[in-house]
Amino acid sequence: MALGLIFLFSLCFTLCFAGNVSYDSRSLIINGERKLLISAAIHYPRSVPAMWPELVKTAKEGGVDVIETYVFWNVHQPTSPSEYHFDGRFDLVKFINIVQEAGMYLILRIGPFVAAEWNFGGIPVWLHYVNGTVFRTDNYNFKYYMEEFTTYIVKLMKKEKLFASQGGPIILSQVENEYGYYEGAYGEGGKRYAAWAAQMAVSQNTGVPWIMCQQFDAPPSVINTCNSFYCDQFKPIFPDKPKIWTENWPGWFQTFGAPNPHRPAEDVAFSVARFFQKGGSVQNYYMYHGGTNFGRTAGGPFITTSYDYEAPIDEYGLPRLPKWGHLKELHKAIKLCEHVLLNSKPVNLSLGPSQEADVYADASGGCVAFLANIDDKNDKTVDFQNVSFKLPAWSVSILPDCKNVVYNTAKVTSQTALVEMVPDNLQQKDGSKALKWEVFVEKAGIWGEPDFMKNGFVDHINTTKDTTDYLWYTTSIVVGENEEFLKEGRHPVLLIESMGHALHAFVNQELQGSASGNGSHSPFKFKNPISLKAGNNEIALLSMTVGLPNAGSFYEWVGAGLTSVRIEGFNNGTVDLSHFNWIYKIGLQGEKLGIYKPEGVNSVSWVATSEPPKKQPLTWYKVVLDPPAGNEPVGLDMLHMGKGLAWLNGEEIGRYWPRKSSVHEKCVTECDYRGKFMPDKCFTGCGQPTQRWYHVPRSWFKPSGNLLVIFEEKGGDPEKITFSRRKMSSICALIAEDYPSADRKSLQEAGSKNSNSKASVHLGCPQNAVISAVKFASFGTPTGKCGSYSEGECHDPNSISVVEKACLNKTECTIELTEENFNKGLCPDFTRRLAVEAVCS
Ligand code: GAL
């Protein structure tokens, strides 16, 4: 009987639950229905729980069906394998519940290796120190802990009934991450590990499929998926698998000291449209909201605290325009095609040397066409079904009925915006304007008892085990009175070599200079004249990590810290200090005492001052203040500070470093969306700090009495720190007569009846605001960008009044480019445009 029951039970299990998510070569099939899915990566620890509902809602409004997240092992088990943490930003279950409540699906990329510009690629640092461990290969320890963690997460999800097979939102899970690139470096062990990872995952019995991205030898038990800026040409290894794109990068991450990359909305849309044109069925934006690498969670070296990623939702949670809107329109257009796309086979037609159509026609007479011009320079007019269509270079037109273009990836019809960081002086309510700053200055070098001494150097990471960024290497040197440099007033030169990542050099408590690696290259050299006196001189070198490596084969073995210290310029030449007796101290005193937290703040004697010292190294600053007015998101402006860490009410804002990029980098004023994108294609901000503002979530503020603590390493001007409020100061749109109509819901409702629909400008204000002024409006040949439009030679003088009439005091408005609205007799030989800039308040 037992056997019979088990059989019956498993049959029921298969029929009643499992199979909720299945697939074939065309798509995922959820509850028996084929799906074409738009997915959006939002990483739960990169924002705060108070932001999650709104982020998910903004994604949904943007036409997204699925939220995707990695699981970040090292935030759940930061210090040992015996403890798990899921509080605050790390509350994975809460995050998934919010997604489910929004009626959306979820893709859970467990990894647990994730890369993700996240510290150590997401693997806890303690695992590197379990004897005999090698990450990501056929290694007993690694596999043991990876399986233990994966199982824990799967069990947690099952307990909360979060898999689709249990009625939950999780439709796919991922094991490992882009291992295909590195497998070769691990030889046979790599192959065995990849096969083991797949088998270990599948044996977890989640009832939903597993995916492996960029895994070129993935077994048939999992679906291999694509990560890239373009995945239209991707083919799954096995013919029964759907074509899934796990990472479409709509921007790129930032590195302290590098300029800022930008990927144009037109090119993102092009890549997505091409993917669906070529049979894709799940597409995920990595990232849709990038968010913030709070605290020391940024990977490295040198990944910025901001993980904005130029994603459709910006770091602060506001829709990034026009990217968010342009993709929303794209999603709408694709969804109009969903049924036909998923229920017919495409016919590919050549429309020219670099132009093609894919036409999908289903049995019930539905017809969908994607017309692509992949020429990266020239616009082209093509003939399709006896009608001619103008296709801008590097663009796709979508025709959900094979007749009407409802969307072209290169024609941005959705509104754009001017977003500003508006400074708000730090303030306190008690009437007095002056803030009460207090300071505590760290000693350069050994504070308290030394941790240990050694002749020569230790590896920085092996010593701190990443409990802190900081490690002091100190020694001393006796200078004889007969040294010529003393008499001649010359300065000897200190020469240091380090494996990374950054360094401040102090002699006799005075900062002599700083140095750091560049880009992702962490080794660097320091060369600076220093002041030495006759007698004993203490040399205190503060070595720093700026995020541990997050990817690459054997990345966990990459070291940091000093390898050589010499001083040039003695009577006898150069003195090599490398084999001296070095005294070591891990971390800072203030960190150790937790003086950045309300509970630890009183464990040192702070010195009150009406004018906080400027340009003073190794200084802790604290001040109690009110939140900035209003309810806009807040960024801490650190332009005038050097480098360090910041906290509000004990919450970790993160590393700040307004490090400037070189003026000699290749920056652009306009980004040409045409042609293949690479992260260095469209840089801005050459010679500017990579990151000036640091996100402080609103939910971290109390109504008053907020404790802001800053640790400054090399010197800055704390009085110039401000909170800035992120404000959408203007909304704008510039639409040409030949743009597809922004109002396309009609197409679905009324078939192709609206083929006469006119191009139109649609404007909308953020929540609770109305259009309070129209700053600019011109129908004719206006030029310029949002914030700096100007009238062209041809201009309808009624433009402003037409727009005011349609829009003033409304939350949103639409203005059609019609005869009724504008003087159509105007410059008939031109394609006329309407440009509008309006203010919401
Ligand atoms: C991918 C990786 C992601 C992220 C991305 C770049 O290779 O899978 O985790 O690191 O690159 O942002």
Features:
binds beta-D-galactopyranose, disordered N terminus, 841 residues, TIM Barrel, Jelly Rolls, alpha+beta, 4 domains
Overall description:
The protein folds into four domains: 2-337, TIM Barrel, CATH 3.20.20.80; 417-442 and 591-726, Jelly Rolls (Sandwich), CATH 2.60.120; 452-582, Galactose-binding domain-like (Jelly Rolls); 758-840, Rhamnose-binding lectin domain (RBL) (Jelly Rolls). The chain is 17% helix and 31% strand. It contains 14 helices and 44 strands. It has an eight-stranded parallel β-barrel with strand order 4-5-6-7-8-9-10-12, surrounded by four helices. Strands 20, 34, 38, 40, 42 and 44 form a six-stranded antiparallel beta sheet that branches. A six-stranded antiparallel beta sheet has the order 32-21-33-39-35-36, with no helix packed on it. Helix 8 packs parallel to helix 9. The chain binds beta-D-galactopyranose (GAL).
